[in-house]
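#lab-general

N.A. 3:47 PM
ok so I finally got the sequence cleaned up, no stray characters, all 353 residues accounted for. can someone with queue access submit it? mine expired

B.Y. 3:52 PM
send it over

N.A. 3:53 PM
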Amino acid sequence: MLVAYWSPSYREETAQILTLVGGMCCREFPCNVVGVENYLHTHNLGYHLLGSRYDSVRRDARRGSDVYYKAGELFVRHVCSEMGRTNRFGSVIRADENGMYFLPMDQSMHEDSYRFVVQEALEQQIELLESRFDEVYINLQSNENDTTLAMLERAEVVVVCLPATVECFDEFYSLYRSMIDKCFFVFFSNGELSAPMKQKIRQYLPKHTTRCCHMIMTRILRNYLSNGRGLDYLDRFRIFGREEDAFSAGVAETEERYQSLFAKGESDTADYRSWKNLTDRHFGDEAIGAALYGEAKPEESERSTIRTLRYICRWLIKYEYREAGDDCVQITERMIRRKMIPREVVSWQSANS
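B.Y. 4:20 PM
back already:
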């Protein structure tokens, strides 16, 4: 499934959210996700998937230099050599060992070749990626160029990343209301969602509140992201917000759910006990983390962010299954492709039915 991540004005958070959601999907489900970059910008998707050094490596590989090639393989090999990464299918870079990959589309091609590929062979390129990976996530440029428009049209879901302000949502709704039915909204801010913003969402999206979520960009999270360590953030804090604390991230219910969760007393949860045991065993790492990233009480500050990321992942995966309808063959094939069930079991059951 092709999922586009986009904001009508440039926001670095778009690439950050793609990284976090893609990384969470790979950790929560047995699947491979490829993140695709379609334009150049500092601190873009490669920075967040491969680390902060990617920007300097990319700058060293200037257009017309020996590490550029029309199909991108030489650029990818250069990045892998400089950053100690491996590649797959010639032009896809492995971001981590959990199944997250990165395709630096625009960076790895001459401009003329890139324009030709996107405009003349877009369907072929997307179909190729979809045949090799379970999910294809693309980070789109904010302006309405040919590539952005084509990808927005081609994508099955558009994850719209917007600041959680009434002004930003009003502007988006006035310009792009026609595409709302294929959108999933991630409203991000440094704190809780305001009452006027909740009311505005209910007003504009009365039938799509489950397609909305609010993501708190905590100080700890922003510190990790500023150093290109979004995937490390997931590995460190994913312990929080497990099934016993799961909740619907629909905006209409968020505030009430939060209040009920914190009323229970977070220090009594299994997650807190697990975190406490972890810190007891690895006090050295925790002390360093507290000094560098201000991780005073991560069990409190990061819990809602991790829950929100899980909600986005599960919504996207469930949406893909719902799109398959009642066709059991399609659903089974998807489960086999994700290695949820072995193909041999299905073949044996078919032979004996």
